Amino acid sequence: MKDYHTHHPSPHGGYLCSVTRADWGNIVAAEGMTPCLGVHPWYAHEVDAAELAFDLDDWLTRYPQADVGESGLDASARHESTLEAQRMLLHIQLGAAFRHERMIHLHGVHAWAELLDILRQRARTRILPRVLLHAWNGSHELAREFLKLGAIFSVGLRELSHPKAYERYARIPADKLFPETDDHPEHWERTLALLTVHRMRF
Ligand SMILES: [Zn+2]
Fold this sequence. Notes:
By secondary structure, the protein is an alpha/beta fold. It has eight helices and eight strands.
């Protein structure tokens, strides 16, 4: 099993996500990992959108093994003031992922419903890339809608330890729900153990 969302190179392999544009060089140089090139929603307002669009196209062309991310939306109190910039960068990254046929890795704090709307619109006009929703903590009803769009999910120790974890995750098919460590590589063993428990229940 590989790590489906991390910011640290892992001996288990997996998806190594950048956070800012400055990370990309290190991300593509990490061995044994799938590099994910993007800009995290927390930093979206610091970025020149046109420049990012150009750079992302260029890097995805040069690194055919790379995915896109970490992108997404964060509507928490701390970040909602930058939502306009976040949306602009999300659309740029979704567009690049679709054109280059890469998966996009999405963060969605307090924003799953809006992300679902955006992805549905893209599905309708047939410009939807493959999608991974990381740190997934939405309801099962929402998960079902994302599954119809072909999305997959990753969850870490925080999500799997939540009191609602069983109702959120037990009915997601095992081949659509994967482990992640995000910024906590030390959580790997416990994350796998908890995920196994959920899968047995499934
Ligand atoms: Zn992350």
